[in-house]
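Reader question, answered in our methods column.
A reader sent in the components of a multi-part assembly and asked whether the whole thing could be modeled at once rather than chain by chain. We filled in our standard form and ran it. Here is what they sent:
COMPLEX SIZE: two components
ENTRIES:
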Amino acid sequence: MGIAIEEAKGILVYMEQNFGAFRNVGFELLGQGRMLADKFGCELAAVVVTGENGEKLAAQAFQGGADKVYMVEGKDYERYNTDAYVYAVTELVKEYKPEGFLLGATVDGRDMAPRVAARLATGLCADCTGIGVEEEKGLIAWTRPTFGGNIMATIICPDARPQMGTVRPKVFKKPEMDASRTGEVVRFDPKMPAGTMRTEFLREEIPEGVVCNLEEAEFIVSGGRGLGTPENFKLIEDLANAFGGVVGSSRAAVDAGWINHLHQVGQSGKTVGPKVYIACGISGAIQHLAGMNSSDIIIAINKDPDAPIFTVADYGIVGDLHEVLPILTKEVNKRKG
Amino acid sequence: MDILVFIKQVPDIGEVKIDPETKTLIRQGIPSVVNPFDKNAVEEALLQREKHGGKVTVLTMGPPQAAEALKECLAVGADEVIHLSDMTFGGSDTLATSRVLAAAVRKIGKFDLIICGKQATDGDTAQVGPETAEILGIPQVTNIAAMEINDGVATIKREEECGYAIIKAPLPLLVSVTKIINEPRLPSIKGRMKANRAEIPVWKADYIGVTKEDVGLKASPTRVVKIFNPVRKSQGEIIREENAQVAVEKLLEKLSEHGLV
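And here is the structure of the entire assembly that came back:
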């Protein structure tokens, strides 16, 4: 089952890879993991589960701040599989007994982490946006938004190990990569029994025109009901292209059938944290705000001056987006020249 | 096919208001509803029952008033409901809640499929489904957008960051559903009347064989040590100009201060 408190030592970061490349959130976690390891005076290790490319990935993890990399590499791990990954990661945690364990709050991270935590009978804090140290007992203090981001809660895990949390992508800075850093790669064979994997991945379906990964985007332009027609998403696309960003949407636009659900930002869609989020014709229902209110700069364009989106906006234009967007796109393109 | 659905009663987040003065949540007077994603879970169970026959049983853990949420499920067509309610369960975190649900599932005995919403809109953890699946030792597929079941095997479309994965999974199985999987039906008048008359069975800790060693506040590995209001940004700069060109130029001036254009 779990790990004894006296034996638990070190900080472990799960670095999620996808087709042999790390997701950014893994590096963001290394930054936070380094902070914790330095405070606790312990080692920072990364765990990498992958089908291929292990050595290259390990080198990047060292450059991002890991002291050690635990490497689970093999054909069974080519693609995320709940049973295989949970098995491998849990066995590794049982063997190396970290005190703290950070994972990214990605689709797969949030699928895997609860099962690992339950198997270890330890606590897990979901989708954290703050990580600190509780001074009294030296525990990790995980802070997370609840209630659609309207209440913050700080949570500890006093009596079970490892203290686990999934961490929201794009909240923390990716640390500077240090090309001179290296470390020890420890290969770990979880010895997964045959028949462990009960589900089977058949194939991928990527709808046409969907731009990948809003969660990691630096620039998002989102459209809502105020666009009026599906064709007007062209205005959103043009502005997104001008900024080198990606297209998001509100629930209303998805429900109207104007755009694929994969673009939806908010509680029933994706949680994003870009440098700049431009909401166009989106009134700003609380469920939408929950998905984007941790963006660095929020810009709202809406003809209704009382739209709730303006309450979270850093900058806003009260005006007709059909007029404003073409001009804004043209001016941005002009300045990029 | 015997289908179990886990639901949670949550405050209606659509009705949440922020006090304009203090910028904090106004907690009073927020009505309770069935967690929106759980409505999709119930609907999916009803749809699968229509195809394959069998029984839909809805479970919830919660205080006495959560019985209302179960009545809503009866009203749309659930066959049975079970209310897990006991002081012993109070203060359970996600793991302890999962132990309660898993114990109730074991008490029920036979099942083919467990459906839950992808997350509850109050806590947003998305952990209870997977943790319960783990305790029960069954496979899971989370975040699903479509599901078809043939001969005891589910073919599932799972929503991921950049698209969908098609996954084959054997029953018994736990899935968590997104909003796009279906459109929840509304209750009929007859359904509502039947639900209003229904006696809601309450299962207590000793009936499902759990104690405060397993569930509730003390058995929960996590502790909430602080609750506070998020720091909200001060009011932003709102540009109101008749001329859109002027408005855009003012905005770009601001963005260039941030080095963004």
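What stands out: The longest helix of chain B spans residues 36-52. Chain B has a mean pLDDT of 95.
Send us your own complexes using the same form.
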